[in-house]
């Protein structure tokens, strides 16, 4: 029954043309009932511009470079595709780390975590935060069971450099959120090292409020055959 449902979703996604569909409501997207329920309970009904432009492209499996100003709704633009990818892959607690979301600051990482807990309340994935503050050992005990991990660049790299704990071999999705801010904060080398550590078969979504040469460099390094969506303000 669930297999048929997922096959049906995959067909809908395949036949979905982002250019002609112009979807207004989340309920008209080819996404699972579990995510839809989480969205409607959080009173998210209509897509914002960046969500309308990017979510269908992300659902189709492309790498995405999304640019849109602060407050435009970029968090859901990547969280919905993350949840849907793992759902359609029938991800379980035994499959380990499926998605890695990188955010420049602890505060922003915590905000993403809270939105994820809200809209993911009808899915069975485990989510975790690694933002420092707690010691690495404390985080390590939990990290091996986490399906969706959100963290700051330094802390994520610290975990990747540990011999045990964070196994990225199954990783389906990498999200680089507020990538322009990560670069402004001096995380270029850290991001390069993280990206270099991850399996190349993954899908990557890179979101930013501004465009710059250093962002284009990061996009070239982290994305494959990507689609650009949103507004492209120069930094
Ligand atoms: P950004 O990351 O682009 O700065 P956020 O994802 O933090 O933006 O969203 C900004 C605000 O807009 C948040 O308060 C969020 O709850 C709200 N929001 C996002 N998407 C929607 C939507 N589709 N409908 C209503 N409110 C939304
Ligand atoms: Mg944001």
From TrEMBL:
Residues 55-229 form the Helicase ATP-binding domain. A motif (Q motif) lies at residues 24-52. It is found in: Nucleus, Nucleolus. Residues 24-52 form the DEAD-box RNA helicase Q domain. ATP-dependent RNA helicase required for ribosome biogenesis. Involved in the release of U14 snoRNA in pre-ribosomal complexes. Required for pre-rRNA cleavage at site A2. RNA helicase. Interacts with the U3 and U14 snoRNAs. Associates with pre-ribosomal complexes. Belongs to the DEAD box helicase family. DDX10/DBP4 subfamily. The Q motif is unique to and characteristic of the DEAD box family of RNA helicases and controls ATP binding and hydrolysis. This is ATP-dependent RNA helicase. The chain holds residues 18 to 252 of 762 of the full protein.
């Amino acid at each position: 029954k669930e297999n048929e449902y997922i096959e049906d979703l995959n067909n809908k996604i395949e036949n979905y043309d982002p250019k002609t569909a112009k979807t207004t409501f989340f309920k008209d997207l080819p996404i699972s009932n579990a995510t839809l329920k989480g969205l409607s309970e959080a009173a998210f009904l209509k897509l914002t511009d960046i969500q309308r432009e990017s979510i269908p492209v992300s659902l189709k499996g492309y790498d995405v470079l999304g640019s849109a100003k602060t407050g435009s709704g970029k968090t859901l633009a990547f969280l919905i595709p993350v949840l849907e990818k793992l759902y359609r892959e029938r991800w379980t607690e035994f499959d380990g780390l499926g998605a890695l979301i990188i955010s420049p600051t602890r505060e922003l990482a915590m905000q993403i975590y809270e939105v994820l807990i809200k809209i993911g309340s009808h899915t069975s994935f485990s989510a975790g935060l690694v933002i420092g503050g707690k010691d690495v050992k404390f985080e390590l005990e939990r990290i091996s069971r986490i399906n969706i991990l959100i963290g700051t660049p330094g802390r994520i790299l610290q975990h990747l450099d540990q011999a045990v704990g964070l196994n990225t071999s199954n990783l389906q999705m990498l999200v680089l959120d507020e990538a322009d801010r990560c670069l402004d904060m001096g995380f270029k080398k850290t991001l390069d090292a993280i990206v270099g550590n991850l399996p190349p078969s993954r899908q990557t979504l890179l979101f930013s409020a501004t465009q710059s040469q250093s962002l284009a460099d990061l996009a070239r390094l982290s994305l494959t055959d990507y689609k650009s969506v949103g507004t492209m303000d120069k930094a």
